[in-house]
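WARN no homologs supplied; continuing
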Amino acid sequence: MKPNFKDNDSLLLRWFFKGLKYFLLALLGLAVVFVVSHTFGAITIVAMLLSEIVWIWVARIAISLVCLFAIAMIIESWG
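OK structure emitted
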């Protein structure tokens, strides 16, 4: 059955949603690794996950996604 609406999403919105999906999956993976390694006592892995450089990169990716979303919304509102 064919839907009655057209897929008029912009390319930027598709990139944002795909990036958001993989970003959230990566955060879920980090959480699972943290819990499992903490449970089994792998303190070195826990220390690596809690290091400052990991969270700096997570913040950079999150800020980039927010900026991409803002740009996509501005372009969509003009079009």
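Residues 11-39 form the longest helix (29 residues).
OK
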